[in-house]
Amino acid sequence: MAAISNSPIEPNRVFAEIAASAARLCDATDTAIFQVDTGALRLVAHHGPHGAFEVGQFTVPLAPEFVHGRAALQRQSVHIADLLAEAHEYPEGSKLARHLGHRTGLVVPLMRAGKALGTIGIFRNEVRPFGERQVQLLKTFADQAVIAIENTRLFKEMQARTWELQEVLEYQTATSEVLNVISRSPTDAKPVFESIVRSAANLFEPWSANISILRNGMFHFEASASAKDGDARFIVERASTVYPIPFDPITSPSARAIVERRIIELLDTTSPETPEMSKRVQAVTGFRSMTFVPLLREHVGIGTIILTNREPGYRLTEKQRALVQTFADQAVIAIENTRLFDEVQARTRDLAKTIADLEIASHHKSQFVANMSHELRTPLAAILGFAELIQEGFYGPLPDKSMDALSRIRSNGKHLLGLINSVLDIAKIESGQFSLNLAEYSLESVVETVRAGTESLAETKKLALKTEVPNGLPVGLGDEQRLTQVLLNLVGNAIKFTDAGEVRIVVTVANGHFAVRVTDTGPGISEEHQARIFEQFHQVDSSLTKSKGGTGLGLAIAKQIVEMHGGRLWVQSTLGKGATFQMELPTIAQSGDQQFIT
């Protein structure tokens, strides 16, 4: 037992100690310990004067003709008083006994879980059977031998598991390192290639690792690594004399690996079947074994990882194949990242140029609209002025028919002037020239001005125009003219689109803010149009617009004016139940010289 505890991983030393102790304590001439090994019994320990058979090399068949064989097969002890007298039972065993001079023998199987792992036998050169005490003692030695075998098995299993875990850890570390390089180099695949071949060369020694990339129908040599730095430099120098290589599945294993979408192995590059390009590579590098792993992106080949070895007959293990496939996937990710980055950069440059062109065009458009608006406004103002003078009789009396025509001229002229002013406001907003003229104002006065200006329109359509303005409203600070323009637009739209019922203006004040609501009993606005109603040139409904008129600019301008005051403008509506436009304004607006910036 001391030998077992001192040598848990050296079974031969333990077996030798057991054999010597068994011979001494059992008063035997010889002791032999055999272990089952692929259908035979192999000698693992011997003690005695007969050294004719070498430990570790000598074997006897696992057969009943031998005493050791029968004990192992029958899984029970065999005790023979005279081996020479039992030649008919043990013909081969008797021959061996005669050769060694043995007469009495006792063999005990080494049992574990009902299975014989081997045998231990003691022998005497005279006919003198072993006593019961010696039989039991030999069985104890057999148990100790089993413990030694089991210790060795467990140690080997633990060692294999440790190696396996270490290998897994090394593989995981390698893939993790490559992923880190990918994250650090999203725009350049070269560092990723170098990390991959370096990891593969270190893990797969004595293999060297290389990467070739397919561009314009040719394989280009991109990276190489070997456990020996000198080999890597040698590979790069020699490969440059062969690469680039055409994409040809017949002459190039790299191309064949891509076409067949699988790993291709060449176990001896000097064989007659070796493709032409591999022969050329072998001629300049001396590599005998080569493995080609395709780099595929959505089944499209973009390159290969090439593993090379100077000895013939080398092939990757299954674990190595799995790892190099992971490396291939990582290489594809790096290539794809670089491609996407290049595409994004190109697209960004195109978009930047387009935006710049659009900004220039928008500026020119705004300038043109502003200039044209001014040019149109001047003669139109003159037309309206002369029409008013004629209508008032400055140039003499006119018949009633002419007066009606003049009224229409003035009405349509004012409408056209309003359109021109709206277009001019939009142009100013877009060019950043639209500003507020802040001064103290009375919101009561603004509401009254709007009511007076729209009352006749409401009466014409037989609508009730109601206002609810509390007394004692605080004086506001803002652009009164622009706020009147906003409220006039909201009330005018409400009257225009409401055919029956009423339009109501409600004003409240709280927490330093005015709240103004314009509510109508019109057709309402769908949710789809509510989201876009404040966009330039957007009209709620083409059929309504055709019958009611409008350009789709008023609400866009109104929203900009309210926001320039630091407020907000929104709508709430349900189809068939009217609409409510709500305006919230701080009683004291922001800086008066602040311009709206698009």
Question: How would you describe this protein?
Answer:
A hairpin with a 2-residue loop joins strand 1 (about 30-35) and strand 2. It is built from 16 helices and 19 strands. By secondary structure, it is of the alpha+beta class. It has helices at about 1-5, 10-25, 65-75, 90-100, 130-185, 190-205, 230-240, 255-260, 275-285, 320-390, 400-430, 445-460, 480-495, 525-530, 540-550, 555-565, and strands spanning about 30-35, 40-45, 60, 80, 105-110, 115-125, 210-215, 220-225, 245, 265, 290-295, 300-310, 440, 465-470, 475-480, 500-510, 515-520, 570-575, 580-585. It has a 6-stranded antiparallel beta sheet with strand order 3-2-1-6-5-4, sandwiched between helices.
Any chance you could write out the topology, listing elements then pairs?
Blueprint: H1 2-6, H2 11-25, E1 30-37, E2 40-47, E3 59-61, H3 67-74, E4 78-80, H4 91-100, E5 104-112, E6 115-124, H5 132-184, H6 190-203, E7 208-215, E8 218-225, H7 229-239, E9 245-246, H8 253-260, E10 264-266, H9 276-285, E11 289-297, E12 300-309, H10 318-391, H11 400-431, E13 439-441, H12 443-460, E14 464-468, E15 476-478, H13 480-497, E16 502-510, E17 513-520, H14 527-530, H15 542-548, H16 554-564, E18 568-573, E19 579-586
Parallel strand pairs: 14-16
Antiparallel strand pairs: 1-2, 1-6, 2-3, 4-5, 5-6, 7-8, 7-12, 8-9, 10-11, 11-12, 13-15, 16-17, 17-19, 18-19
